[in-house]
Amino acid sequence: MFARDKHSLREIKRRIVEFIAGYAEDAGAEKGIVGLSGGVDSAVSYALTCEALGSHNTIGVIMSSALSTAESIEHAQSVVETHGGILRRYDIAPTVEILRSLLDENTRVRLGNIQARIRMIILYNVSSETGGLVIGTGNRSEMLTGYFTQYGDGGCAIEPLGELYKTEVWALGRELGVPEAILVRPPTAELWEDQTDEGEIGIPYKILDEVLFLLIERNHSSAEIISRGYDPDTVERAIELVEKSRFKRHIPPSPRIRTDNRETLL
Predict the structure, then answer these.
(1) pLDDT (tens place) for every residue of the chain, 266 residues total
(2) Domain ranges across the chain
(3) Is 213:235 a contact under the CB 8 Å cutoff?
(4) Which residues make Cβ contacts (< 8 Å) with residue 100, sequence separation at least 6?
(5) Which alpha helices (H) appear in the chain, and where do they start and end?
(6) Please, which of 58, 121, 136, 263 could form a disulfide with 85 given CB 3.0 to 4.6 Å?
């Protein structure tokens, strides 16, 4: 379903590169800032930003925590070594500990969200310093299921991968020359020990993407998807994730106060 030949991958790459370059030009920004986790999404976003703005205008930011593994840091560094650019590194562990001590009853999910939002603060501080754009790393699979932190990894100027399912990001990563060690590593945000994306979502990405494609792009009902041989519990889980996370995919709403002719009702 998601098989992509080299021609289509090159066309996808071209469109995304033009999108990044065009948005940056409209915003008057020369630089792009990408948070590097050591995972495939940030590696692909970084590579595309280098193509669009030039590696000399691309800043990769590693923001390690107490849970970051040496492997993740090495993978993040390898992205900059492969594609060029500017590398910055920050240790967020002390800040996480300060907030942990200030806030009560922290679950591992809440602590994970704290880490994601600390990273967003750092990226936007670099943005303010350099006048660059914060380039997002979220893919369509994550956005549709709400697998991101509002004002954390969901906080960015643009989402270059927002139309690509996770399996498509892997394919594009190979086309872009992302290091193989990153492509084969199980995705993890390292928000707690032994955490993996697929474990938290509860569905392998390959199956999730196929179900989401049929649900969103083909507008199939759950019954139609199940009739194709997909596990009913998996289908219902995917639909539940999409429905429960709708609020994450919209800007904060405001009540309607003005009429169509813009006259105030007050």
Answers:
(1) 665 677 899 999 999 999 999 999 999 999 999 999 999 999 999 999 999 999 999 999 999 999 899 999 999 999 999 999 999 999 999 999 999 889 887 788 899 999 999 999 999 999 999 999 999 999 999 999 999 999 999 999 999 999 999 999 999 999 999 999 999 998 887 777 778 889 889 999 999 999 999 999 999 999 999 999 999 999 999 999 999 999 999 888 888 877 666 565 55
(2) 6-188, 202-249
(3) no
(4) 106, 111, 114
(5) 6-27, 40-53, 70-83, 93-102, 108-130, 140-145, 166-176, 180-184, 197-201, 205-212, 222-227, 232-244
(6) 58
Token pair, residue 212, equals: 């989401």
Kindly list the distances between the CA atom of residue 94 and the CA atoms of 38, 101, 109, 241, in Å, as whole numbers in the listed order.
21, 11, 18, 33
pTM of the model: 0.93
Distance CA 208, CA 66 (A): 30
CATH superfamily label, 6-188: HUPs (3.40.50.620)
